[in-house]
Amino acid sequence: MDKKELLKLISIMLQYPDEEIYTMELQQYIDAIEETEIANFIIDFGRYYKENDLSILQENYVQAFDFNDKMNLYLTYSKLGDEKERGQTLAELKEIYKFAGFELVSSELPDYLPLLLEFVSHADEKIRKDLLNRFRETIIEMQKILADKKNPYANLLQGLVLIINSITLKEVLL
Known about the structure:
By secondary structure, the chain is mostly helical. It has one domain (3-173): Orthogonal Bundle (TorD-like). It has helices spanning 3-13, 19-22, 27-31, 36-51, 54-65, 77-80, 84-99, 113-122, 125-148, 153-168, 170-173.
């Protein structure tokens, strides 16, 4: 499984766990992950997902992402809140999506992490690197908050951080 496919998989796993997502056969995709370090974090999250009822997953998701201004899946909100600068950033993201031919059919804002990951999984390499690097620190902060709370989503975000590092830091090392 390549990095783009991993980003798409994490995009799905970070969405609200409804019946459709809950019944997806995600294990076959998790089993196809070749990079051991990344796979371990995603496997741990997959185990949590598989071992819990849908109602428990939904409750944990809401607790993790819906009741805290600093911890939600809208990447610009924790830093910018409802400031004017956030509106400008959201408009810029919409333009990037449009320029790349990605049609926003969702009602989600363009900084919604699952949407951004879906987009970068299809975007060209430069856009993918730029956007992942732009939000890297925010995602790392989210992962740390979740890890401190011993929330299973910390594993999923740790896997994402490793993927982002392998994509964005590769140039620095060369």
